[in-house]
Amino acid sequence: MSIPPTTDPAGRAAIHVRGLEKSFKQLTVLRGVDIDVARGSIFALLGSNGAGKTTLVKILSTLLKADAGSAEVNGLDVASQAAEVRASISLTGQFAAVDEILTGRENLILVARLRHLKGPGAIADDLLRRFSLTDAGARRVATYSGGMRRRLDIAMSLIGDPPVIFLDEPTTGLDPEARLEVWRAVRELARGGTTVLLTTQYLDEAEQLADRIAILHDGRILVNGTLDELKRLLPPAKVEYVEKQPTLEDVFLTLVGTAKSGEQR
């Protein structure tokens, strides 16, 4: 039950990972991870809590060092060129890192100034427009909804135009309406040419957003492909003579269940 992994021998992938391993004392978290993420695409890393998603993102964003294997981001080695990697990426964690005392516009201006960019006001206004926050730009962030804070957080991460952005479970704790707001923001990133690696435990999120989906379980990539490729791993079910195509949920539960059965034998 596998799809051959994509390869990029010319090095055009925005993210290129081979044989990545990571352990914390006796706990093995990553067990030889291989992925390639095409430039300008949305790549979803789907897995349950504890699957190793955040650990992989931390290695790719230079916050952790791998025990074995190699990884390149934007053509830069994460181990030997960590400073250059950090300059070309942005990382948005599971909780919005915004200052509630400041207005939305002031948050953006602050980050632009910290990065020593010219025209911080114009940069802030452009991002407020791109993420449909112009009307709220003069309000304190403490008055924002969860979805608005998350969109502002993502907008802040784009200051300086990083070619690669990591979104680690960006809709955790959000209500359905706020999740849709964030989904629209993520699609906006890809339309602008930004490469997005998205970690999530929500099946519908991966299904709605991703160009490619990798299922990570117990530190291993079980499968990596487009949504259509993953669905073809399971035969369609027939209900009252009507063919029913498998959903991403069916694929995920079958693959993870098979992996768990193999571990118990």
Spell out the key features of this protein:
Rossmann fold; alpha/beta; four-stranded antiparallel beta sheet; 12 strands; single chain; 265 residues; globular; 9 helices; six-stranded mixed beta sheet; 35% helix
What would you note in describing this structure?
- Helix 3 crosses helix 4.
- The chain has a domain at 1-39 and 46-88 and 198-265: P-loop containing nucleotide triphosphate hydrolases (Rossmann fold, 3-Layer(aba) Sandwich), CATH 3.40.50.
- The model is unreliable at 1-10 (pLDDT under 50).
- The radius of gyration is 19 Å and the shape is globular.
- The protein contains nine helices and twelve strands.
- With 265 residues, the protein is α/β, with parallel strands linked by helices.
- Strands 6-7-8-3-9-10 form a six-stranded mixed β-sheet, sandwiched between helices. The chain has a four-stranded antiparallel β-sheet with strand order 2-1-4-5. A two-stranded antiparallel sheet has the order 11-12.
- The chain has helices spanning 53-60, 82-87, 104-114, 120-130, 146-157, 176-191, 203-209, 227-231, 248-264; strands at 15-24, 27-37, 42-46, 68-73, 76-77, 89-92, 164-168, 195-200, 212-217, 220-225, 237-239, 242-244.
- Helices cover 35% and strands 25% of the residues.
How does the major sheet shape up?
A: 6 strands, mixed
State the secondary-structure class: alpha/beta
At CATH level 2, the architecture of the domain at 1-39 and 46-88 and 198-265 is 3-Layer(aba) Sandwich
| CATH hierarchy class name of the domain at 1-39 and 46-88 and 198-265 | Alpha Beta
What is the CATH H-level superfamily of the domain at 1-39 and 46-88 and 198-265?
P-loop containing nucleotide triphosphate hydrolases
Stated plainly, the CATH topology of the domain at 1-39 and 46-88 and 198-265 is called Rossmann fold
Radius of gyration over all CA atoms, rounded:
19 Å
Strand content: 25-35%
Instruction: Write down the overall mean pLDDT.
Output: 87
Q: What's the N-to-C terminus distance? A: 18 Å
DSSP strand count: 12
Q: Estimate the helix proportion, in percent.
A: 25-40%
Detail the poorly predicted runs. Answer: 1-10
Shape: globular
